[in-house]
Every structure is written in C-alpha cells, then in structure tokens.
Specification:
Rossmann fold; 7 helices; 2 domains; about 20% strand; single chain; alpha+beta; six-stranded antiparallel sheet
Length: about 300
Amino acid sequence: MISVWHDRRIGPGEELHQQISQELQTADIILLLVSADFLSSDYCYDTEMRRAMERHEQGDARVIPVILRPCDWQGAPFGKLLAVPKDGKPVSKHASLDDGLLEVAQAVRQAAASSLGPPTGGSSTEASAQFPTVPTREKPAVTSQRSSNLRIPREFSDRDRDVFLTRGFEYISRFFENSLDELSARNEHAQTAFRQVDANRFEATAYVAGREEGRCGIWISLGGSWGMKGIFFSHNGLGDGNSYNDFMSVVDDGFTLHLEPHGFAHFGSGERRALTYEGAGEYYWSLFIDQFSRRRG
C-alpha cells in the first residue's frame, strides 16, 4: 500500500520545517517534482533535495526525479538517477498530461513493489535494476489528515478560449517550422519549405530528391463568416480555406483547457483526446509526415 504525503497536508499552526524534515526522514520513496521553479527554490533544492539524496545514497530511501516541465536538470545531483517519464521527457511535453502522468504512476508502483521485494515464486530483476531495493518502515501517524484532491471546477470565458486557441496556433506554427528544419538537416536528400502567409495561416512542404512528397496548410479561425472556431488542417495546402481534413477546437474538463481533434482524419479512431500544445503539434505533424509512407506504399 502507498501512503502519500506532501507539504499541503501540513495543518494550520504546525511547524513547516519540522513536519517536512520528519517526512523526509521516514519516507521510503521520495518524488522530486522537477521544474525550473523547483531548481530555483532555495528550500526545495538546497534543503529538501539534498536531504533526500543523502538518504538515497545511504540506501535508506529511493529518490525518483519526475520531470514536470523542460529545464536544465541533468547537471543537478539527482541528474545521475533514472528519471521519469521515460528518457526524462517532461510531463508537459507529452501528447496529453494523462500520458505523462501515467508513466509516473507506473514507475512509482514499480518502485513500491520492488521495495517490498519480489512476489513469491516471481522475479523482480528488471525493477531491481532500475530501482535498488530499500527497506520499508512503519510511518508515524499523520497529524493532519485531508484529501489531496483539492481542485475546484472553474468557468472559462470566450476570451480564455480565444487566447488559448491563438497561442496554440502560434505554438503549432513554430513546431512545424522547427520540425521542417530538423527534417532536412537529418535527411540530406530531403528539402523543406515553410511559408507563413500571415498571423493566421502557414503552409508546409517537403520534397525528396526534388519531388514533392508532402504538403499541408494550417490556419486558425476565431469565428467570422464560418462561425467555427478552431485550428484547421488540409493536405492540399491553404487553397481557399473552405475545405479541410481535420480541425481542433478548444475543450475543457472543468479545470483546464485543451485542444481536441474532430475532423475526418480523426474519425473512426474511437478515441477522443484532450491534447496539450505539444500533443496538438505532434498530431498534425503525424498527418503531414504520414504522406511519405502513403505515397510510397
């Protein structure tokens, strides 16, 4: 059984440093939630992290770095440890936050299982190789019991949605421009072209040995004569903007805004996905790059 503790469980009037030190001293598994904010925090970095690493190196606890957002963490004292998600890819860079957090949950479960030792008649070679076994210990009673589920639903205004959509389009535009540059840099027989028509439209083209192998147009609509708000994708380039293969609109789960594909390329997949900006960029890039295999199939 996993018993979770974090500093939001400290009750009013309780001494912060004493409670945190006590939990750090008795924890079997310590998660470092790594971001630029974590690295710049004197208390998190110089006090909590250093004590956690001391216990890890003594074999009394297991420290697992969880990379939440992109930051320069590899040079930190915990940079030598196996981080999650896989390959240290930040949670925020996954197609959806759920995808990244699933990897974190699986890693924590694996670490907890190996701490208890292998099941009878079984083997934990893989788990032990990644996370060395540490002894478990009985924890003192938590003085202030409360839920960690403290999110409150919120309403999103039309402006919130329009700003989120616009920033999403700007992100996808940069994502495509950088990906096209990298595609041609890694494949000497490939050439690419990125054309930003205006703030609302761009077109991407890829050639192999001078022959066009892939093209797409992507644009944003905030309503207007269409009455539809979204980020649209067409395999035929921009054209007149009246036909498209897919589009994304802004959705929310009551807590956070996401982008969700709705068009023909998504039809029949049986899955509705709430995407981050990174996930949206990868989704449209996959539609673009898949043209290479279809044309050669």
